[in-house]
């Protein structure tokens, strides 16, 4: 996260670190005690990777405490519908949703977040010297209206949403796969999963997978 | 069984060619001959200098040639009536085996001093006159070994301070090195590692075999040179010993493995030809059984150890084709199933020229016969799911035939299917596309669609 600040308290307990050979590779979100939602790109080498190379850590605040925290194995990786860039990971054992870890709510299917709504992105990725590297950082960014976003989305249309656009603030390397979370009253909902763009923290808004567009698929994976 | 005398393996054969030399003082000796083998034996006789022969196929005549392709004025010509057979020793620049029979044309020593002609005595005086040793082929100033020196071919030099020196002619096993498992080795080793003479690939004696050169043109099964047409550990050949069908050849490995060159044509998501260059990470069988690691001997013992097949990328438990099979495969972790072909990896040409079926709208009405998932895993029959009353997945049972891709729950991402029960994926989408039809009514855009709040409190737990 570039231009953000270190997460305090219990905030961001749903953000997980996806690691390959014990090295943080990208972010993800705990959407059920035994399910993680993330992105394919930059996280995995294929839809059938060698899962024993990968592990998940929940409730982390800082990557330097990684060796002292339990690791969760992945039993299944399920690639999302064509073009979604989403991946669901089934954990070998449910994550302990205490000790700083929690789940995040999924949005209502086909829902919409109003332009200008401030939402928050979390991650342990690149800070470009704007914050504490390897700490879980967050940055608040406004949702961008569809018209401006459509130039970035290309053909992706409703499957993508955009947020941010303030120079020097945004998501960056190793944050990808992590959640964009919006809040209304006390309810926090994961509305986006960050995906790589050519530049980070630029004037161009950041691109996210629209979770609401794929919520039917997510529930179907839970069921079946 | 006493080995039958054979001579043709000492020759390099060129079908539909002949060698002529209009300027040569000695003319060919013409003899009737019942076969090329017979002709080869005549050429071998010691009372006649014979370096090659043209075999005239129609009238079975043998033209024994006292010259070779390097003789001044000699010319190799295409002629469908002839087969040219050249004695290897006159056309190679390396030493084969232990017997020193080098007859090449190198004329400088290993410290780069020009050799003195054998007929000369001007600079370094000697007694190895060509006339005195007619069988030693002391021609011009070429390196030879008339005294069987253990250092190999040598010559008197044109330097008065260096009387004679070895020429440093390489062994054929070192002249051309091999990479990987020597599948591309095209050198001239024609003996096995135990010193047995190799059988010609185009001969069925003493061993009948399937590797006929005309059937395996890309394998360069020329004469009796060691080759690796079937992905063994190293180049090999059938031997002239009737008791030993085949043996490996001893060929020097190249210093660098040039793996970057080898990887140029690899694919990771699809299969080209037989998939020898597939380097993807598919590690389950089409039925969903996990592949066995290549470096493991459990549950199946095997000889495909990664260390022995360094260029085959036998990493982890990924599907590979290290043995020239028709498709990448793997040993399976099921003790009852040794090997499985990874036929669910798609073919690249299928991707390049897609004939992907399409569906209208969400595909509820798709009634095509596709029955594999997008990754090529076979679909399972719908029947058990209909009978089990799985209301989550099947809103409508209409059209749920056999194991065809269907969309009974109006999944907006298109038709899908269940897979076999032991598969790592319970269900998946099929490789189908939405049809591009101009008659399809446009979707209501975001402006007209009512906007739903993301925070409606539905407890999904």
- DSSP summary, beta strand count of chain B: 16
For the sheet with most strands of chain A, the description reads:
7 strands, antiparallel
Helical/strand content category of chain B: mainly beta
Radius of gyration of chain A: 16 Å
Number of beta strands of chain A: 14
Cα gyration radius of chain B (Å): 34 Å
User: What share of the residues of chain B does DSSP label as strand, in percent?
Assistant: 5-15%
Placed side by side, the strands forming the largest sheet of chain A appear as: 1-10-9-12-13-14-11
Number of helices of chain B: 6
Could you state the oligomeric state of the chains shown? heterodimer
Approximate helicity band of chain B: under 10%
Backbone shape of chain B: elongated
Distance between the termini of chain A: 35 Å
- Helix and strand string of chain A, N-terminal first? EEEEEEEEEEHEEEEH
Low-confidence stretches of chain A: none
Largest interface: A-B, 36 and 34 residues
How does this structure look, described?
The complex is a heterodimer of chains A (about 220) and B (about 450). Chain A has about 220 residues and is mainly β. Chain A is about 10% helix and about 35% strand. Chain A has 2 helices and 14 strands; from the N terminus they run ββββββββββαββββα. Chain A has helices at about 145-155, 215-224, and strands spanning about 5, 15-20, 25-30, 35-40, 55-60, 70-80, 85-90, 110, 120-125, 135-140, 160-165, 180-185, 185-195, 205-210. Chain A has a 7-stranded antiparallel sheet. In chain A, strands 2-3-4-7-6-5 form a 6-stranded antiparallel beta barrel. The longest helix of chain A has 9 residues, at about 215-225. Chain A is globular. The model of chain A has no long low-confidence stretch (mean pLDDT about 90). Chain B is mostly beta strands and about 450 residues long. In chain B, the strands form 6 sheets. Chain B has a 5-stranded antiparallel sheet. In chain B, strand 6 (about 155) and strand 7 (about 165) form a beta hairpin. At the A-B interface, strand 8, strand 13 and helix 2 of A face strand 16 of B. Strand 8 of chain A pairs parallel with strand 16 (about 450-455) of chain B, so a sheet runs across the interface.
